[in-house]
Amino acid sequence: MATTTGSTSANPKVNYKYRRNKARQEMRAHVTSFAMMIFLTLIAFIMVMSGFDKYYVFPVLLLLAGIQVVLQLYYFMHMSHKGHGAVALFLYSGALVALIVIITFMTIVWW
Amino acid sequence: MSTVVQKKGFFPVLWDYLTTVDHKKIAILYLISGGFFFLVGGLEAMVIRIQLAVPDSNFVSAGLYNEILTMHGTTMIFLAAMPLLFAFMNAVVPLQIGARDVAFPFLNSLGFWLFFFGGIFLNLSWFLGGAPDAGWTSYASLSLASEGHGIDFYVLGLQISGAGTLIAGINFLVTIINMRAPGMTYMRMPLFTWSTFVASALILFAFPPLTVGLFLMLFDRMFGANFFDHTMGGNTIIWEHLFWIFGHPEVYILILPAFGIFSEIFATFSRKRLFGYSAMVFATVLIGFLGFMVWVHHMFTVGLGPTANAIFAVATMAIAVPTGVKIFNWMLTMWGGSIKFTTPMLYAVAFIPSFVAGGVTGVMLAVAAADYQYHDTYFVVAHFHYVIIGGVVLGLLAGTHFYWPKMFGTMLNETLGKVTFWLFLIGFHLTFFIQHFLGLMGMPRRIWKYLPNQGLEVGNAISTVGAFFMAAGVLVLIYNIIITQVRNERVGNDPWGDGRTLEWAIASPPPFYNFKQLPLVRGLDPYWIEKMEGNDRMTPAEPIGDIHMPNNSFIPFVMSLGLFIAAFGAMYQVDWRASDGAEYGWAIPVLVIGMLITIGSMAVRSLKDDHGYHVHKEDLEKDDEEGGRL
Ligand code: HEM
Ligand SMILES: [Cu+2]
After folding, report:
1. Which pTM does this prediction carry?
2. Residue B503: half-sphere exposure toward Cβ, Cα within 13 Å
3. Is the ipTM above a cut-off of 0.85?
């Protein structure tokens, strides 16, 4: 017990130093991904404002949006942490089902 | 005993059920209300069959026939089959995984009350100007043209009860992921738990499209939008897509839990481990997945073109493969087993050929080119009754007999059970087998009357006779239930003597906290394993300690009641606007008041802390000495 004095954790088994280290790493990941997201948003704005062809802009915008969603989920909504297997499974199967529906509509239903 | 009060008398019991958050009591609520709606839907079915018994009949008028037909289908799917399945899921799944309750007991109760009020709302249409009359599929071109408030009742009622279903589905997902007892790995979960898990995932993904569809329909009908009106730039086919993107997974939401119940019964009464357990799990998941890729098979004749039809035809036929895997595994479970033909087992054995017949016609319908011939005839009616009655309803009846002792602590009479079985089975095949041929002879589906001398008389007469057999079977079941409860002969924890899974390891019905100590699970069929090693109970995985329990709450009832009230406002504001404010002045206030009740009770729930209470260790120990009467 004595070794864990100073820990803010409810779990005394988790070492203070280790937790600090972990928190610092996480902070770095947060900041990095935050910077990347701002950068991506900038690209999006510039792309639209400089008037590129819309058949070029649309797919790239969608791609950038997709990347942002992933960053958001993994670095800010903790999907990179352990124990999120079920969450990921449901997220991806939901996305897959939605994707199938969209593809169906775009290709064979309303081509 | 301060925490536990034995309540007596009618009103205390009623209050207890109105406020309960206990999964076992919610199961009973689902069973009673689902059973009630099953009888209502059954009555409607009898009217349909009486009308069609003879040619050119005038038992009911054309308009009333449409209403009865629509309400029969809608009631049976949404208000009878689904809640009855939820009854068994609630009663059994937490016990099977060794949990003390579901993950969110409050939400469990909310899910029930939403379903209940939605169902009541839908059925009040009978007394308030006429029921919906555009079929349970409520295709937009038909339903937008329907006069009166029938379709509005359909839209609002299903919206409310659909929210309840979605909540219940999410609750089971979280429960099964998080609340399994020590040692209960995914691949040790009983098949009923597995199928509940997959069905809940299907609910999670399938109900939102229905919600969206109903919302669009609601705006089209009640607030002047034109999503489905092609004369105003809308598209009526969108409703069909949304409905069937929901609708096909829905039929698997119904059948998978029934498969689960049968899997338990086959293993129990063959007194053998389920054959090919991992293949069964895989097939269940695969069926759930493929279920999302076949919705267009309901729309082959819409004219989406040969490419769409061909792809969806092949995808549909693919589902027959995992289904076949399951059929063979059940048969191989019986193979070499020491079979006991109890009532549940009779249902299970009869289910196999009945359901296979439905699957075969399914594959026939999946041949897109041939479906142009079958579509909208009695052939389709025969198909889906073979899968739904031969699969789901037989499963529900089997489950009723199988799990009755666990839910109520009494055993339904086996002789009467077998009488019900034979009456129902014979009646079912009499009613629906002949309908295949009526369909092939060209009798259209959803038809009010037919003319004499077209060769349709004999078939229809036979079909009606069969329906009376089924009704007789149900009456015997009701009689059985009544005498069983009146006699009230209590049974022990494993009344069938061959229980394999955890629910049979504790008392019938279980104490309100389920497991005094969470059990340690040492493999598939954990209770069987302990019995084979000569133990009469499960090895506990924890010392006796305080048990944390949720408090009862009246809030779910009030929250659902609010939506129920608001729905009337939403509906009659149409007339208020149509009359330029001259009449129905109360509509908007009622809408607002209803919403305020719901939002207010949500606020109370969020702001007021409710930490539940503890059943103390001392009480549990004392209880042991007194013979477990807590
Ligand atoms: C081998 C598996 C199955 C196949 C290949 C299959 C195929 C089909 C097809 C192609 C139709 C459309 C027929 C038409 O309208 O022309 C249909 C209708 C229907 N099926 Fe199935 N099916 C299968 C299993 C099931 C199951 C398990 C259920 C329910 C438990 C079910 C319930 C229904 C219902 C309710 C309809 C009619 C919907 C309506 O128009 O009101 N089917 N099936
Ligand atoms: Cu289907």
Report:
1. 0.90
2. 28
3. no
